[in-house]
Amino acid sequence: MSPQHTSPTPPAPDADGASTPDKRTAAGPGPSTAPSPTAGTRPPKLRKAAYEKELRRLQAELVEMQQWVRETGARVVVIMEGRDAAGKGSAIKRITQYLNPRYCRVEALPAPNSREQGQWYFQRYIEKLPTAGEIVIFDRSWYNRAGVERVMGFCTSQEYRRFLHQAPIVERLLVEDGILLRKYWFSVSDEEQIRRFTSRRDDPLRQWKLSPMDLQSITRWEDYSRAKDEMFVHTDTPSAPWFTVESEDKKRSRINVITHLLASIPWERVEHTPPEIPERPEETSTYQRPPRTDFRYVPDVAAALEKHPSGGGRAGKTSAEAGKSAKAGGNGKNAKAGKNGKNGKAGKNGKSGKNGKNGK
């Protein structure tokens, strides 16, 4: 089961609003030159039950693929590129969710520091490449130079041209050395990107994902489209082709990219016998566990959820009170968020055992 490469097809418009030479779409059982029938449009959302069932099956195969990578000493590099809010991060999360983190790394490099700026451009990425038995996923990669650096003027024209010349050479060397290199471009429309930006802005848990650079990309949509087209012209090569992931629906894109990745890696199932769990030996009389009062315990604020299953706010308040007054057990070693009592359970006054030993 070896990767397949296809001959160039005529340029076709994609969701990014630009023509992409030799565009390959990551969908179905393997590489394909046919664009998704939903390209440039918002497809119907994938049913949750169908999505979760298929995702679970694919994640089980990813675990088996990683076992093959470890056993054979293969080296896998996956590059995830695309517009801001195109769904790269959420796809990476689903890919790595059940993989052994000792043998799978996600690299999301920040802007280069002063030392790195004086190095060969590819140097800091080369340092992150996998050793035998590893999978490395780049959440953005050396292609920053062809995208954001080009559009925002963070590199000179000479540096940009040098990158377009060197990138195919570097990637060919990686492939010739045996690295399994896969490059994915997540394609999203301008309307969907705005929807996702708005969702991030309104969600306190995800506001950190919306950067000033993301917002600037809104006003430079066509500049990014031209930069992407130019990047594909120079770096979509037979040895390291680009595959486009239609990402108007994130769930569809996750299923498609994982399916494609599994189909493009020549992995095989490795016979694996689960280890036997030995029986625990009988306890001896030589060990005596210290009394519980000798230890400090984390306050059991979760107990409030049992009494008030829908009272998330109350539980949160209790947690804050526990952290404020207990400080790892208040004044007693075994205090559970009681202020001065040994066993007070996160209560505020008398019922919590503020000054009593066992108040609840």
Automatic annotation (TrEMBL):
Q: What name is this protein filed under?
A: ADP/GDP-polyphosphate phosphotransferase
The answer on whether this UniProt entry bears the keyword DNA-binding reads no
Region (Disordered) residue spans: 1-45, 272-360
Residue limits of the Polyphosphate kinase-2-related domain? 46-271
| Quaternary organization | Homotetramer.
Record's family? Belongs to the polyphosphate kinase 2 (PPK2) family. Class I subfamily.
Function of the protein: Uses inorganic polyphosphate (polyP) as a donor to convert GDP to GTP or ADP to ATP.
Report biased composition (Basic and acidic residues) as residue ranges: 272-283
Q: Which Pfam families match?
A: PPK2 (PF03976)
Name the Gene3D superfamilies on file: P-loop containing nucleotide triphosphate hydrolases
Q: Could you say which EC number(s) this protein's record lists?
A: 2.7.4.-
Keyword Transferase: yes or no?
yes
UniProt-listed PANTHER family? ADP-POLYPHOSPHATE PHOSPHOTRANSFERASE, POLYPHOSPHATE:AMP PHOSPHOTRANSFERASE-RELATED
Q: Where is the composition biased (Low complexity)?
A: 26-43, 316-340
What are the protein's GO molecular function terms? polyphosphate kinase activity
* Record GO biological process: phosphorus metabolic process
Alphabetical keyword list: Kinase, Transferase
Source organism superkingdom: Bacteria
